[in-house]
Amino acid sequence: EAGVAQSPRYKIIEKRQSVAFWCNPISGHATLYWYQQILGQGPKLLIQFQNNGVVDDSQLPKDRFSAERLKGVDSTLKIQPAKLEDSAVYLCASSGLPGFGSPLHFGNGTRLTVT
Amino acid sequence: AQKVTQAQTEISVVEKEDVTLDCVYETRDTTYYLFWYKQPPSGELVFLIRRNSFDEQNEISGRYSWNFQKSTSSFNFTITASQVVDSAVYFCALSARDSNYQLIWGAGTKLIIKP
């Protein structure tokens, strides 16, 4: 089975610019997550989708971050405008069953550098 | 409050040595799941194991073994006869109702296996 696909792999932008990341989950996986991982830390959940609905976006900085999963399959995460502290790896994950106890399958991530 | 502590920031051993990665968790829930993930230099988080709170049986998978002890709130991970390919950052994580079933991640332990 194909894994979680993410693009781009790397992105370098200047502060105040905008950027978008794309994720295609494992086929048939209804739950999709976006995580932010700062170097040396564990992942931090930004948003969780169940099909095309948002389950949890409590840690998403909504003044600058947005995400959508319009058809319940692939998803995009956007940052506008970017700040220096947004430099991190953005990880997309999916799971076949909702929530509790279901292992997550991660993509390779997008490494964002904001200068 | 829920918390996962991985006190070992970095461990360095010589190939073929055994190594144990510690994980201590805190939760008031009686039903929860514990996970271990591996993050090699490529960046992708790879699911290794899931254990629910009612199953205290130790698990062995090849050179990997896991020791779950509710009495000490620990879920330790041992690699026997380590290999260079085991070099990675290892994360322990907890999922329980108190955290709305979202994964609570430890800070990770960087494991370096020297040839």
Sheet having the most strands of chain A: 7 strands, mixed
State the assembly state of the protein chains.
heterodimer
Largest interface: A-B, 23 and 23 residues
End-to-end C-alpha gap of chain B: 41 Å
Rg of chain A, alpha carbons:
13 Å
Task: List unreliable stretches of 5+ residues of chain A.
Answer: none
Give the uncertain stretches of chain B in residue-range form.
none
**Average of per-residue pLDDT values of chain B:** 94
Per DSSP, what share of the residues of chain B sits in E-state strands of 2 or more residues?
over 45%
**N-to-C order of helices and strands of chain B:** EEEEEEEEEEEE
Q: Percent helix among the residues of chain B?
A: under 10%
The H/E string of chain A reads EEEEEEEEEEE
Q: Output the structural class of chain A.
A: mainly beta
Question: Could you describe the largest sheet of chain B, including whether it forms a barrel?
Answer: 6 strands, mixed
**Mean pLDDT rating of chain A:** 93
DSSP strand count of chain A: 11
Describe the protein's architecture and organization.
The complex is a heterodimer of chains A (115) and B (115). Chain A is mostly beta strands. Helices cover 0% and strands 48% of the residues of chain A. Chain A has strands at 5-7, 10-13, 19-24, 31-37, 44-50, 53-56, 65-68, 75-79, 88-95, 105-106, 110-114. In chain A, a hairpin with a 2-residue loop joins strand 5 (44-50) and strand 6. The mean pLDDT of chain A is 93. Chain B is globular, with a radius of gyration of 14 Å. Chain B has 115 residues and is an all-beta fold. In chain B, the strands form three sheets. In chain B, strands 2, 5, 6, 10, 11 and 12 form a six-stranded mixed sheet that branches. Chain B has a four-stranded antiparallel sheet with strand order 3-9-8-7, with no helix packed on it. Chain B has a two-stranded antiparallel ribbon with strand order 1-4. In chain B, a hairpin with a 6-residue loop joins strand 5 (32-39) and strand 6.
